[in-house]
Amino acid sequence: KDNDGGSRGAFIVLEGLDRSGKTSQSSKLLSFLEGLGHPTELWRFPDRTTSIGQMISAYLSNQSQLDDHTIHLLYSANRWEKSSLMETQLKSGTTLVVDRYSYSGVAFSSAKGLDFEWCKKAAERGGYGGERYEKLEFQRKVAECYQALRDPSWKIIDGCQPMEEIQKQLQEIVLDHVSACKKGRPLSHLW
Ligand code: 2DT
């Protein structure tokens, strides 16, 4: 339900290579924002709890094989299935901290060789471990694709810094954005 006259929540996305610390930083950020009394939820994509998410999870752990275009569209569908809840939450004043979103969708698929523009359009139309993408050479390609996606809404934090330093910088950026949203910054659509 819209909180009439109330302010909307902020949409905060953390993106980066595998093992860059996004998940730890997101949960610290959640505690920080909750501690200040901002209603906040932590989300992540892929959301492996849905049935589409379970197909993605099987693919990521190499239990199933899927065509590159097919898995790309499943990631996209996995975001679409959460999109109306996302909008409801934001409009009701809840800030969402999201561990990966559409930028991962484009960066990872185009790093595999899918056409960059196709990935962008399809995305919206519709110590490395053992998971499929966790290989150094592939991560280099993902990094290049992230660079090509950079836009002015991005704030870059150097993930090689100490954890506490990263969190400090993140908190500053996020608080600015949370207040801008409170003051009525309109909700817009990505791509
Ligand atoms: P986690 O390790 O963060 O759960 O991610 N990925 C993710 C894509 O290729 N496309 C997408 O749209 C999304 C959201 C990045 C698992 C892997 O899924 C990749 C790493």
List keywords for this structure.
binds 3'-deoxythymidine-5'-monophosphate; three-stranded parallel beta sheet; globular; mainly alpha; about 190 residues
Short précis:
The chain is mostly helical and 191 residues long.
Biggest sheet, strands in spatial order?
1-3-2
Q: How does the overall form come out from the CA principal axes?
A: globular
| Alpha-carbon Rg, integer | 17 Å
Question: Are any ligands bound, and if so which?
Answer: 3'-deoxythymidine-5'-monophosphate
Instruction: Tell how many strands the DSSP assignment holds.
Output: 3
Main sheet summary: 3 strands, parallel
Q: Please tell me the overall pLDDT.
A: 93
Number of helices: 8
Structural class by secondary-structure content: mainly alpha
Question: What separation lies between the terminal Cα atoms?
Answer: 25 Å
* Helix and strand run: EHEHHHEHHHH
Strand content: 5-15%
Describe the structure.
It is built from 8 helices and 3 strands, in the order E-H-E-H-H-H-E-H-H-H-H. It is mostly helical and 191 residues long. The chain has a 3-stranded parallel β-sheet, with helices on both faces. Helix 3 runs parallel beside helix 6 (116-124). The two termini are 25 Å apart. Bound molecules: 3'-deoxythymidine-5'-monophosphate. Residues 18, 45-46, 60, 75, 100, 104-105, 108, 133 line the site of 3'-deoxythymidine-5'-monophosphate (2DT). The site of 3'-deoxythymidine-5'-monophosphate has 10 residues, from helix 5.
